[in-house]
Amino acid sequence: xxxxxxxxxxxxxxxxxxxxxxxxxxxxxxxxxxxxxxxxxxxxxxxxxxxxxxxxxxxxxxxxxxxxxxxxxxxxxxxxxxxxxxxxxxxxxxxxxxxxxxxxxxxxxxxxxxxxxxxxxxxxxxxxxxxxxxxxxxxxxx
Length: 142
Fold this sequence. Notes:
mainly beta; about 50% strand; disordered N terminus
């Protein structure tokens, strides 16, 4: 008897995670598809996720290209775009800090093509020219 195994198209098209939560303290949630869930160490982060920290919250996310993002208390961070090829190190990153603080240590994408890494706030779009920086946004929130 010959068995035939077919992969489901839905499984083949599952999006790759942009990264994962490495540190989570206090109140931290990840909103995905209209649902908010508490952020846990090891939880995967995807494009479109909105990461929120409470007054006592702090979250550290490591993206697949080794970019380190650390959002401080009362912050809202949106991962708008992320693509990364682990072989060529090509890709792009766009994240929006709606409010709060964000510490960034850039990864492989910025080393390969710094023009492909951008961070937005309510008032400015920041292009990467260094390897470590902090962004603060005094937005009203959402």
